[in-house]
Every structure is written in C-alpha cells, then in structure tokens.
Amino acid sequence: MPTAAPVLLVSDHVDGSVHVVTVPDGTVTGRLTGRHLSEHAGFLALSGGRVACVDDRRGELLVLDPFGEKLVERAVPVAVPAEHLACDPAGRRLAVTTGLGKNTEPWSDLLTVVDLAADATARVRTRVGEPGVTVLGGGDPLVVLRHREPGALTAHRFADLLAAPPGCPVVPPHELLPLPDDGHGDAQAPDSGHVFVATGEGVHRARRKDNTLVAEAVIPWESPARGWYLRLDTRRPALWSTLRGGAPDPLRWPEWTNQAWRHDLATGRTFLTDLGPGLVFRLALARNHTAFTRIHPDGDELILLGADDTVRRLPLPVMDGAPRRGGTPWEGVQRRAVAASPGADWVAVTRGGHGEVHIVDAQTGHETTRLRLNTPLHHGGHVMLRSRNDGADGDPVGR
C-alpha cells in the first residue's frame, strides 16, 4: 500500500475557510467554508494524522481527519473565544481555555474539557485571564493551567472537571505553584511528566508526582533576551523557543534581536543561533531542520536551521500590507505562518494578504511549489503540515 503524501491544512481565520492540499503538488483534497478557526489556539496534532482545532464563531472543537474520506470527524461544543488547546499524551482528553478574543481586557473564566472516547464534555469556571494549558497523563490525568498577574500553575483532576454539574460552576484547583507574572509559552514532555512555562526569568518547570506538582530548577535563557513561545521537539528530547531582545517598544520592532534557543533535555545543554533583526515568532520542525520566518522592512526570509547547526536563508517576496517602520508589527498588518512535519522535509510558508503558500524543500533550500488559494490568508492565516504517522502527536499542546 503506497504511503500517503503529506497534507497541508491552510486556515484563513478571518475569511472563514480551511483548505487541505497535498504536498508538494498542491492538489486540493478537502475544503471547509464558514469555519473561523482560532489562530491563537492553533492546531493540535492527534494520532493517525488527525488534527484538533476550535471554530471560534460556532463554538466547536473540531477533530479533522485530512487523510480520511470525511474531513470533519467530530464537532463538540466548547466555550470561546479559544485561547489555548491541549490534550493528554493519549490524545483522548482535551482542554480548551478562553481568552480575550476581540476585547481589550480579560473577561472569560470558562474552561472546557472533552473526553473523546467517552463522548463527554463539561464547562467550568476557573479564573479570568488568558491561561495556557497542558494535560498531564497518567491514571488520573491532570489539567494544568498557567495564569498571569498573579502568575501561577494550578492543577485540576480531569475527572473532577468532567464530573462538574451543569451551569458552569467555579472549580478551585487542588494544587498551586507560584510563577512570575509574565508567563507566556507552554510545553509538556509526556515521557517524564514535566510541564514547562516560558517567563522573563527563564523556563520554569514542574514535575508531576502523584496528583501534585513539584517545582524544579529554572532553565536559564543564557541570553539577555527571553522567549515568548515554547515548543517540544518530538524528534529528540529538546525544547525550542525564539528569544526576542531589544527595546520593548513595539514601534521599534525592526531593531528587535532574535535568537533560536534549543535546550537539550537529556544533557541540559543550551544552544543559541542568531536569526537577525525584526519579527520572528513561531517555528516549525521538519525532519532534519527547524524553520523560522523573519519579517523586516529590508526584506523577509525563511531561515532553515539544520540538525548540524548550519543556517540557510531564503529570501521571500514582499507582502503588501507588511509591517512597516513607525508602526507596530501586530495591528492591521499582514504576517506569515510557517509549518512543517517531523516526518517530512517540506516547509510551508504563507504570504499574508496574497493567498499564497510557498512549499520549500528544506534539504535543498529551493521553493518547489507556490500554491495560490481563493482566500487572501488574512494576517498570514494559520497552517499545519502532517504526515500520517509523523510523531507530531508527541507534542500534546496546540500550535
């Protein structure tokens, strides 16, 4: 039986569409309309090439099977706007937190938990804010929320949340660990039962012990900059981030410094690679490369960091409506999204506002295909690249 080609999910969360295309040829194999996926909660890899995401307009958790005959495998009502999405290592129990949405102040304290195997769901109230979430496995899975101002890690037994009565009751945590107030970025290492949080001090970590959390030593950034994004490397036991330095003023974003940060969990060693000035945020993990996009008024580029620490830089065509000097890199501008699969050598990069996706062979550094979709890909859209059994589900946090 031939191996299925990798597939790319391309979401325009403003336009309300999702395309599924094969890579690298770009054949459209599926499409959803009227689906406004949460770009912030992102895509969550499940086993067998399946993907979970949240429709922010309809208030539904979607389980998609881009390799199956029916794209939408399941739709489950959840509270929105979705902030973060995570599952336990088995991919059975999911949690969805709520955030600001289009509001300027935190207002929602709703948390939704879903047991896919039992076809059960519950909504509870926790704490107003923009909480991150991880779901630690074990005989009695734990939902761990990361709060800010005041910073804390709080733990809830998944079974207790699922058994909550109707009416969205307030459910206090059974465990709390203090954190700095500026936590932003979450990861979990399923094999060791560790949860990690990016803060200005470094990466705080805690380990599950029975039904409690035990704080462990902070992993330093080893740089005056800090990471705002944290990701588990499923190819080897490591954490990745991009460290942003320089003046915090968003109007000075072209001057921001950026470094790729990799921390080897087996050896405890940290590796830093300079990426250049401008806006660098999320990253993607291909088979032998880690991919970053860098946006700058002098020119954008895709950066491929090889397993041997070699760096290859590929210029990207300019975006109409790209961030400019004198403005912020967030408001009313176009951006880029990047995706890769740990089971393939392809990297996908969007060109926000143009409806284009560049498909690049990370091994050669050459663009192989340029997809043109019938959607602008506002704000860069959001993308996920999957091979059927690529091991991406080893990272149980939405990206």
TrEMBL record:
Gene3D superfamilies, alphabetized: YVTN repeat-like/Quinoprotein amine dehydrogenase
Disordered: annotated segments: 380-399
Amino acid composition bias (Basic and acidic residues), ranges on this chain: 387-399
InterPro entries assigned: Quino_amine_DH_bsu (IPR011044), WD40/YVTN_repeat-like_dom_sf (IPR015943)
Protein name: LigA protein
